[in-house]
Amino acid sequence: MNAQQARTMLLNADLIHSETTVQTALADVAGRIRARLADKNPLVLCVMTGGVIFTGQLLPKLDFPLDFDYLHATRYGPETQGGKISWRMAPWMSVKGRTVLVVDDILDEGVTLAAVKESLIRLGAEEVLLAVFTDKLNGKNKPIAADFVGLPVPDRFVFGYGMDVDGAWRNLPAIYALKED
Ligand code: IMP
Ligand code: MG
Questions:
Q1: How far is the CA of 157 from the centre of ligand 2 (A)?
Q2: Mean pLDDT of 135-164
Q3: According to the 3-state scheme, what is the secondary structure of 53-113?
């Protein structure tokens, strides 16, 4: 998508959560994560690429010792069963015996994050917790629930705060949805 198309896309989108709402939710979810993980020396794993904004703004709000690394996983294809993901980049640090906090932008159908969690457990993680900034209210029976959620989003294509629309607008501080027609 070129710059002009990206601008038009944004002009035609609906604002779902303002920057103020996003920052309030961020402070709230950070508080819950602090309460749960302060004495766990967790390994925090950012799911690239969508998780980068949430993770980047969350980490300075966690006032306890932790390790940080990232992963990049993708599904092989629609026929793939849960658990079969392709690591574009596996975490470099060992997860063995660790409390792991996986941080991503959105829980949609949950297939990818369920497979990521299963893999991390198989790699020896003691406990895997999942933080997503948004949880899509799609009415589906998700194979995984998030332990920490920032905000709900409607069952529409949303973008901003790490989420892209054809590669654009991950950098927005607020969350928008494409107009439905
Ligand atoms: P799922 O939970 O396995 O269905 O896949 C989740 C991934 O799909 C997320 O990490 C996003 O990269 C992408 N995704 C799902 N819904 C949206 C959306 O509304 N906007 C942008 N990306 C989305
Ligand atoms: Mg993603």
A1: 13
A2: 96
A3: HHHHHHHHHCCCCCEEEEEEEEECCCCCCCCCEEEEECCCCCCCCCEEEEEEEEECCCHHH
